[in-house]
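User: Just a sanity check before I run the rest of the batch. Below are the structure tokens for the first item. I only need the designed sequence back.
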């Protein structure tokens, strides 16, 4: 689904990530983890082109993604992004927010059909009955689910999540993880999840990429990560046992 080769990324002269390589299989729940500030969001922004890589190659479904993306790129029609802040537009209802990507990418798409698709996605995240509400009227967890419905609206092949549980209480965070997992199994959409939430990683990760010191410290299955001998990996997964 996605292959990254020798990617270097940063801001101006400030290199944040160096020579990052990994691949993500179809339908996989892939988690990028590591300490705060290690470059997780930078990696995601480089791949989706919000802050294009300095060097390296990104392949999406076997085609190379050339950054910066041309204006007529179809890439954004095929991916979904769920931002940390949910980023719902406050002047639009939930339903209008979910329809937004369709209106943007297919301006001639019939309104009735776009509404039907938005309602179908809202039902998937259990928000159909709240479709006429504005973001301000929704709880933190509901906003995240609304943002998920919007990310799903174009039936993307892959969804990028940046710290999806940020700011949620533990119970809401768990419910959200369970919904993510259920939809991943149902729709077979590939997930690229950036997070440092240990519980969430334990619940949802199938493949793990750990970043440290600008590099890939670990790349493998979740089970392999749990058995890793690398000190920082051990420390991350078992803070109590291995101390600070
Ligand atoms: N827009 C930006 N401009 C300059 N530096 C940035 C920007 N965004 C992040 N950084 C820096 O890049 C580093 C990695 O940040 P980030 O990718 O957000 O880390 P993480 O998501 O792992 O917490 C940090 O040192 C941060 O200060
Ligand atoms: Mg981040």
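Assistant: Here's the designed sequence for the first item:
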């Amino acid at each position: 689904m996605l292959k990254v080769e020798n990617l270097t990324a940063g801001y101006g002269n400030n290199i944040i990530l160096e020579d990052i390589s990994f691949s993500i299989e179809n339908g996989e729940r892939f988690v990028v983890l590591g300490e705060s500030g290690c470059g997780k969001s930078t990696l995601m922004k480089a791949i989706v082109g919000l802050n294009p890589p300095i060097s390296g190659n990104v392949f999406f479904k076997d085609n190379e993604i050339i950054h910066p993306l041309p204006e007529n790129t179809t890439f954004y029609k095929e991916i979904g992004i769920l931002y940390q802040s949910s980023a719902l537009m406050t002047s639009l209802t939930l339903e209008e927010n979910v329809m937004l990507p369709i209106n943007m990418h297919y301006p001639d798409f019939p309104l009735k059909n776009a509404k039907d698709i938005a309602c179908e996605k809202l039902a998937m995240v259990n928000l159909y009955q709240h479709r006429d509400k504005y973001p301000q009227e929704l709880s933190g967890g509901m906003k995240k689910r609304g943002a998920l419905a919007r990310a799903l609206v174009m039936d993307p092949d892959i969804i990028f999540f940046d710290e999806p549980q940020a700011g949620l209480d533990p119970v809401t965070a768990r419910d959200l993880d369970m919904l993510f997992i259920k939809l991943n199994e149902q729709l077979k959409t590939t997930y690229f999840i950036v997070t440092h939430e240990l519980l969430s990683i334990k619940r949802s990760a199938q493949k793990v990429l750990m970043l440290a010191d600008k590099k890939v410290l670990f790349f493998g299955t979740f089970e392999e990560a749990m058995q890793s001998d690398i000190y920082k990996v051990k420390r991350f997964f078992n803070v109590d046992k291995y101390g600070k």
